Fold this sequence. Notes:
The structure is a homotrimer.
Chain A: E1 3-9, H1 15-32, E2 41-47, E3 52-54, E4 68-75, H2 80-98, E5 105-112, E6 117-118, H3 125-130
Parallel strand pairs in A: 1-2, 4-5
Antiparallel strand pairs in A: 1-4
Amino acid sequence: MPLTQISIRKGSKTETQKRTLFNEIYLSMRETIDVPEDDRFMTLTEYATEDFDFGRHYMNIARSDDLILIRLTVSNTRSADQKQALFKRIADGLVRELGVRPEDVFISLVETNPENWSFGHGIAQYAEKALPT
Amino acid sequence: MPLTQISIRKGSKTETQKRTLFNEIYLSMRETIDVPEDDRFMTLTEYATEDFDFGRHYMNIARSDDLILIRLTVSNTRSADQKQALFKRIADGLVRELGVRPEDVFISLVETNPENWSFGHGIAQYAEKALPT
Amino acid sequence: MPLTQISIRKGSKTETQKRTLFNEIYLSMRETIDVPEDDRFMTLTEYATEDFDFGRHYMNIARSDDLILIRLTVSNTRSADQKQALFKRIADGLVRELGVRPEDVFISLVETNPENWSFGHGIAQYAEKALPT
């Protein structure tokens, strides 16, 4: 169910690196917040310099043009601990597999009700599960 | 007030089909969740294969390259029943009017407070309505 | 922490105007909702006519092709008054500095928990602050 939107600078990642990026974020969700197999829905957009604005020093974190901005939408069923584990796992994975600087991993999480998802056929699959049958 | 973000594969829809897509989503919201006339704000983005990653079998739903990923942001004033009616109406409409496979309609809904919208002039119109005058 | 996504018509703003747009939104957040210095994370996307659909008269507000659609994601720590001040400040700033019509400023705000942000290093910085040390 997680929906992932990735924003990077134009030309900062190769096709292979993008593939790795998708895979690492998916694996991170699998390992920390109980995301089922094949539950991956992600888009990536590249921005020209003039269309991508970010604070290079906010919180004394030195960001570079390699900044990866990750927006996640997930159901509101995780604990604060799980979310912290997710953030750590994503950053660790991108550092290890892509050579990204840990300063360049920005994550924003938006939570929604489980009933707010339809994975096909116009059915709210997670709501259906909660209903008596 | 709904804000709609649509993601598709590059080249998978003609200009006419995009127009139909916008119209069907708008009509679905009109008919199921009390969206007023002309309240339509939507963007559509096409993604190259390397920038669009999705599970082709999650929940045993067989998705194809025609996948339409729809993100909706709406006020948090609808019942679960209304949201389920919305999902069904969108999928039915896209199947009927665009020949889309029902497996290829993915919807994610994010809800916000009514006071969180400004439709122009820097005014939070829905908050204003709630205030004593 | 605010994450800002701006949508405009293709070619409706120059590079200099985009810079002003980013700056005015940032300054508006600084002045009305206590956003810290350098806390700015924004992307801008231009849409072809066929990919950008909006109601030209919703709420009797006459929108033009210069419409600026602004999506903000912020922590859920602001009052309704602060959010109204933010909307007003953004519209006033864009009118004053860019010559935008006030009818053409659309804002949608999504709120999340403070613990839902990681600004780097895989740490949920706002959650950490709330924890005993």
